[in-house]
Write a structure and sequence with these properties.
Chain lengths: 622, 612
């Protein structure tokens, strides 16, 4: 739980203000989705370089775009020059032919500009979108590899924001900013050279204010960076809250929490708005300070220029005026650069968040020398396994278990005993802190995850239905299943009948989480999904908890056939469902307290015997 | 579909598109109205800025003419000082303008987001049965952002363009009418191009927004279902699915850029034409002697101020269309009428707990889910519902808090149709443990107090005690302050259910509904919960849905449901005599019971030893 403690200082819990609880006031209650992992990495060049590295595959496009931009710049600059010639030379001299020629030239130039700017837009959008595409794909693929630990500790909304909003934030910088950056630098260098060439003294004077600008920029930088970070962070809070509100809407309406939620949402939005305005207030300094330094720069040049002029130092009025004209051009790119710089600072706040996920270690991954597990027989051994979701609280202690191929192992025990946790370890969703798990004699940490999980069919305690057709949901684990196989799986779990009653049978579109189905129906579908995957090891974690006893019985009869030759783990609270298991393992408080067959355990008159007695007593009253 | 609440309701389809468009624009702009002062300040400062912008060139002209050329040295200092002052003033104004306009942008999205949020909370279950969370998320984030850009960037730009255009046009017309008209001669073509551009870019932007929503829905679903994805090792499948949406988004965005790439350079070209035309014709006039060189040069130097606003038009159209595409999608949400809302003059009083179903029918889609439900439940009665999966148990109890509306008949609470009740008042007195447990990302204690925020720690603990949750919560690292995640990750299935029961109990409801609330709880714990409930249920109307008869047999009325009908009702004993279905269920469970008893007794006699 370290993550929530770290975040304990910031934000106000959703209930903290409302609850009149002395404990709540003395110790601020926090709300997970108010909080985001504060990123405390300094702005380092490495990150910027990393951002740039996304451009690498598109070097050619970048070069081409640059060339186009240079052409465009030249064309745009020659425009006023040609106009000037037309006026100064041809019109003044009454040369209509010359004027017409220049007019034609100008027209021609317009077409060049048309072509180039069109190409530039097309290429640049492709460039930028390619990068965003790559970045999103990388992020998504990386997230697919992360273990449950990652998902356990963050609301879904926060993960989503990073793939969608944060990546989009980079768009502007990547499409416009970076390319403009280069052209601006080029023209800046060019103009500086020209200025020095014209009059190095004046040039030096005009550059006098540049350090001032740099000073402002660096001073602002840290502030701006922090405020933008704050903005992104608060934005993530809003999104996480939204996401959770939307997912939990039914509960919210059940409990009439709308008002409180709205107030809380207002607070989050206020926070965001304030953060934004703070960022803007600092950000806004950039523009005006560039403007003001520009004028200071011109004044300096005027001042010293005129001093030089009056002192009769080799400078003419014309030169001075021309110089000042160039000085104006000098400030254009500088002002652009400050904009880009700004964009960069904004984008870095998002880039950091993107990279943070990309850098999140994949803690459960194939070992470098992982072997592909062939078709397994299904022997599962827990060798002295100790496990906790957090290092400071062990949930399972010294678990020793031996499942022979084809056996049915039942796990029983009170809620929270650790049954689901044992099962999570078989699929290697988590790694144990101590001990090992062997499947067919192979340590599961040494085999490839894919080859392992593909042979395990799992019905989770929480059913999940994807949006898509019933058919797609059932064959999720084996896309190439035939229609007959799909129907057979549905029939085995007694789902065929109700599926056929749906509007379009197997083609019925289900919504997110299967909201159109009853809870039991959802469970049946996810059961069918696990069966269809044709696994060597089948794990049923309370797979029939929401299903009526009659259907359950029918399923059990069907399973008896289907389970032949497969190892299976069954968790159930209705003891009748597990009585025939080859091995019953009784778990309490993370330890195996008894194991054996039904009869053996009853004979032992221990925990299992008592569980049965309780059930009997309850039933007795019938 | 229930009572006309749909995701995409386009009920004004009969109106012509232009009218709708104007309406959307008006509606969008209306969000800026509360911030008119800020907008006004921004507009005034911008105007001043524009005027001041002409001062410094004037100063530098003066400096060149009079100081450098004319040698009036004493003017140098005042002119330089003046320039600095103006720059300073401009800087300050620019700063003010920036802050004010950001205020407007932020104010608009704040209002929009909050009203969307409030509205979404009013939409009923049937809406959420259909809509995709990720898609809604994308609307409330991406679309709202597009509107912000328009308000903090577009509006002032528009004003600036218009202002410059008008001022420069007046000046130019005064200087030379013919040349000005020539200069504007391209405008009709330009207008046509802008129109074409506009009509192509609009659908492009709404496609982008829609695709963004699809992408976000895929991500959302992937994260929500990550356990299944991993369990079946389908990561690659998910990556492919994402890649398809990702590429589609790429195509849509690039397509819109291509539309821009086609039209905007043409707009530039047309305005470029007019400058060339002016140069040529004006030059010709000068050569002919009809125009002085001086006025031509002056005219020519102003012409760019006429051209850039025209050129910027393309970008503004672009910005506006992006905002419109977003606004339409947001208004769509706001325009979705909640299918279920309190009527005017709704009944709002304390619930006693009488529940009555009169000839109730319900269908979600085409098929009937409930038929001819008739039932009278007096206050304080315990009603148990049994029946096969999908027989309509949940649907039945969902009608009491009016999560859905009946499609026929009436549901009455305290003899008042639930449709006449004030929703808040009604639901306040109903406590529910839904069949699917959802816990929020907050401390366990807060989750339990979800329905009654003023509950004291003692109350919370009492509710947890009754739900048999106190013991395990106390064992958690930080007790009641321990965070549980979204969908209650971090707790076991049974632990979550018990928290949900405690949450329902704490609201001190008159009507308590437990929808299969102990399905993941072990027998012994369930038994203890039942004993605790027995005293809590005193005087409350209680509905219990369960599959095991042992759980329901003590109820005052047991309903047996099949295919959406109540096929039998009565007490346990009377049902055993009257209902074949109930008897079947009983026999099945009873046989189990017999077997169990035999075994336990068998081992009990042979095994000997301690009796637990
Ligand atoms: N993701 C998690 N992070 C931290 N703790 C967890 C997590 N999942 C479960 N736990 C804790 O581990 C313990 C064992 O949980 P587990 O889910 O294995 O129980 P279970 O035996 O399956 O119970 P049930 O019958 O209620 O499903 C519980 O105390 C629970 O609070
Ligand atoms: N929101 C919905 N939209 C459309 N159809 C629905 C919806 N909810 C339920 N149904 C359908 O209505 C029927 C009854 O569902 P209901 O949830 O009431 O069953 P149930 O008796 O509670 O079943 P279970 O024991 O599985 O929870 C089912 O056939 C289901 O597919
Ligand atoms: Mg479990
Ligand atoms: Mg149900």
């Amino acid at each position: 739980m370290t993550w929530c403690r770290q975040q304990g200082q910031r934000g106000v819990g959703w209930l903290a203000k409302a609850r009149k609880d002395p404990k709540a006031t003395s110790k601020p209650r926090t709300n997970l989705y108010d909080q985001d992992e504060a990123i405390e990495k300094p702005f380092d060049k490495a990150q910027f370089v990393r951002l740039l590295s996304f451009l690498r595959p598109y070097r050619q496009t970048v070069v081409y775009v640059l060339a186009l931009m240079i052409v465009l710049a030249v064309a745009n600059l020659s425009n006023p020059y040609l106009m000037k010639i037309a006026i100064d030379v041809h019109i003044t001299n009454g040369n209509l032919l010359g004027l017409s020629l220049i007019g034609l030239l100008l027209l021609g130039l317009q077409f060049v500009v048309l072509y180039c700017s069109r190409q530039r837009t097309r290429l640049m959008s492709r460039l930028g979108q390619n990068i965003l595409l790559d970045m999103r794909a990388q992020l998504f693929a990386h997230i697919q590899r992360l273990s449950f630990k990652f998902f356990d500790s963050r609301p879904a909304g926060k993960i989503m924001v990073r793939i969608t909003n944060d990546v989009n934030q980079l768009n502007q910088l990547l499409t416009g900013g970076l390319v403009n950056l280069i052209t601006d630098i080029i023209s800046l260098v060019g103009i500086t050279l020209v200025m020095f060439w014209m009059n190095w003294q004046l040039a030096l004077f005009s550059l006098l204010v540049v350090p001032l600008l740099l000073l402002i920029a660096t001073k602002l930088r840290r502030l701006v960076r922090e405020t933008w970070r704050d903005v992104r962070y608060r934005n993530a809070n809003i999104n996480a809250n939204l996401q959770e509100t939307l997912s939990g809407m039914r509960v919210i309406q059940c409990f009439g929490r709308e008002e409180t939620n709205l107030q809380h949402f207002r607070d989050l939005n206020d926070d965001y708005k304030n953060a934004w305005m703070r960022a803007m207030r600092i950000n806004m300094f950039f523009g005006p300070s560039v403007d003001i330094t520009q004028v200071i720069g011109s004044v300096v040049v005027y001042w010293f220029g005129s001093q030089l002029l009056f002192a009769g130092n080799n400078i003419t009025v014309g030169e001075l005026v021309a110089f000042i004209g160039y000085l104006g051009r000098f400030w254009g790119p500088i002002s652009d650069l400050s904009n880009i710089y700004n964009q960069l600072l904004i984008a870095m706040a998002s880039a950091e968040r993107v990279f943070e996920i990309l850098d999140y270690p994949v803690d459960i991954d194939d070992a470098p020398d992982a072997i592909e597990l062939g078709t397994i027989r299904g022997e599962v051994i827990f060798d002295n396994v100790t496990f906790g979701y957090n290092d400071d609280r062990m949930v399972l202690q010294n678990i020793n278990l031996h499942a022979q191929p084809g056996q049915t192992i039942a796990l029983v025990g009170p809620t929270g005993a650790g049954k689901s946790s044992i099962i999570n370890l078989v699929s290697r969703f988590y790694d144990p802190q101590a001990g090992s798990i062997y499947i067919d004699g192979q340590d599961i940490r040494k085999v490839s995850l894919n080859s392992l999980r593909r042979q395990i069919g799992l019905v989770l305690q929480d059913t999940f239905i994807f949006s898509g057709t019933v058919r797609d949901n059932i064959r999720y684990g084996r896309l190439d299943a035939t229609e007959a196989e799909i129907i057979a799986a549905a029939k085995a779990v007694n789902a065929h009948e109700f599926i056929m009653q749906l509007e379009r049978g197997y083609d019925t579109e289900l919504q997110e989480r299967g909201s159109k189905l009853s809870v039991g129906q959802r469970q049946l579908i996810s059961f069918a999904r696990a069966l269809l995957a044709d696994p060597r090891i089948l794990i049923l974690d309370e797979a029939t908890s929401s299903i009526d006893t009659h259907t359950e019985k029918l399923i059990q009869e069907a399973l008896a056939v289907l389970l032949q030759g497969r190892t299976s783990f069954v968790i159930a609270h209705r003891l009748s469902t597990i009585r025939d298991a080859d091995l019953i393992v009784v778990i309490d408080k993370g330890r195996i307290v008894e194991q054996g067959t039904h009869l053996e355990l009853l004979g032992r008159r221990g925990v299992y015997y008592n569980l049965n007695r309780v059930q009997l007593l309850q039933g007795e009253a019938m | 579909m229930i009572a006309g609440e749909s995701i995409f309701n386009q009920n004004n389809g009969s109106l012509p598109e232009e009218v709708l468009l104007v309406r959307t624009i008006r509606r969008m702009l209306s969000y800026a109205v509360p911030y008119w002062q800020h907008l006004l300040v921004a507009v005034v400062t911008l105007t001043t800025l524009t005027v001041l912008g002409m001062v410094n060139p004037y100063f530098s002209g003066m400096l060149v003419d009079r100081v450098l050329k004319g040698g009036e040295k004493q003017l140098l200092l005042p002119i330089c000082g003046g320039m600095l002052l103006v720059a300073l003033a401009r800087g300050v104004l620019r700063y003010i303008k920036g802050c004010q306009i950001e205020r407007v942008g932020q104010g608009v999205i704040y209002d929009l987001r909050v009203s969307l949020y409030a509205h979404l909370q009013r939409l009923s279950f049937s809406y959420y049965d259909k809509v995709r969370t990720g898609e809604l998320m994308s609307r409330l984030t991406g679309d709202v952002e597009a509107l912000r850009v328009f308000f903090s960037d577009g509006i002032l730009n528009l004003y600036e363009c218009a202002l410059t255009l008008v001022v420069v046009m007046v000046i130019l017309l005064k200087m030379n009418t013919k040349l000005t008209l020539l200069c504007l001669s391209m405008s009709p073509f330009l207008a046509w191009v802008v129109f074409r551009f506009d009509s192509q870019i609009r659908p492009a932007y709404s496609h982008i927004r829609r695709q963004n929503a699809s992408l976000s829905a895929v991500v959302q679903e992937n994260i929500a279902g990550v356990r299944v994805v991993k369990a079946f090792a389908r990561e690659q499948h998910e990556i492919d699915k994402f890649a398809r949406e990702n590429e589609k988004l790429w195509e849509r965005v690039v397509y819109s850029a291509d539309v821009r790439a086609t039209y905007i350079p043409i707009m530039d070209l047309l305005s470029g034409f007019s400058s060339v035309a002016v140069l040529w014709y004006g030059g010709y006039q000068v050569i002919q002697g009809n125009l002085t060189l001086g006025s031509f040069v002056a005219f020519n130097s102003y012409i760019w101020s006429l051209i850039w606003p025209i050129r910027r038009l393309g970008h503004l159209v672009n910005l506006l269309e992006q905002a419109l595409a977003a606004a339409e999608r947001l208004f769509e949400i706001l325009d979705t009428q909640p299918a279920i809302a309190s009527p005017a003059g709704a009944v709002s009083r304390k619930v006693r707990g009488k529940v009555e179903f009169r000839n109730v029918n319900l269908h979600y889609g085409s098929a009937d889910v409930l038929q001819d439900i008739n039932l009278v439940v007096e206050p304080g009665t315990t009603v148990a519902i049994v029946g096969a999966t999908g027989s309509g148990k949940t649907s039945l109890v969902n009608l009491i808090p009016r999560f859905y509306d009946v499609t026929g008949g009436q549901v009455l609470v305290d003899d008042v149709d639930v449709r006449d009740w004030d929703l808040g008042a009604l639901r306040k007195h109903i406590g529910i443990a839904l069949q699917e447990t959802f816990l929020f990302s907050m401390p366990v204690g807060d989750n339990i107090a979800f329905g009654r925020q003023d509950a004291s720690q003692t109350d919370i603990e009492a509710a947890a005690q009754a739900a048999q949750a106190h013991a395990f919560i106390s064992d958690l690292p930080e007790g009641y302050d321990t965070f549980v995640g979204e969908r209650g990750i971090g707790l076991s299935g049974g632990q979550r259910q018990r928290v949900a029961i405690a949450r329902a109990l704490l609201t001190d409801p008159r009507i308590l509904i437990l929808d299969d609330a102990t399905s993941s709880v072990d027998m012994e714990t369930e038994h203890r919960i039942q004993i605790a409930l027995r005293s809590i249920m005193q005087g409350r109307t209680t509905f219990i849905i369960a599959h095991r008869l042992a759980t329901v047999k003590d109820a005052d009325i047991i309903l047996v449901m099949e295919n959406g009908r109540i096929v039998a009702q009565g007490t346990h004993d009377s049902l055993l005599l009257t209902s074949a279905i109930y008897n079947d269920i009983y026999q099945e469970q009873y046989r189990e019971q017999e077997r169990l008893r035999d075994l336990v007794q068998a081992t009990g006699t042979t095994g000997g030893g301690v009796v637990g």
